[in-house]
Amino acid sequence: MKSVDLVGSAVGNTFRSKTRTILTILAIFVGAFTLTITNGLGTGINRYIDDTVAAMGADDVMTVTKVAENAADDGDGPREYDPDAIAGAQEGPPGTTSVVAPISSADIDELAGIDGVVRAQPVKSVDADYLVHDGGTKYEIGIGGFVAGMQLQLAAGEQPDAAASDFEVVIPDAYLEDLGFADADAAIGEPVTLAVTDAERTQHELEATIVGVSEASLGTSASAVPNDALNDALFDAQSTGLDASELDSYAQATVWFDPASPADEVTALQDRLTDEGYDSTTVAQQLGTFKAVIDGIVLVLNAFAIIALLAASFGIVNTLLMSVQERTREIGLMKAMGMGSGKVFGLFSLEAVFIGFLGSAIGAGLGILAGTGISSALGGALLADLPGLTLIAFDPVSIAVIIAVVMGVAFLAGTIPAIRAARADPVESLRYE
Question: What is the torsion angle, in degrees rounded to the nearest 10, for the CA atoms of residue 9, residue 6, residue 310 and residue 29?
Answer without folding.
Answer: -50
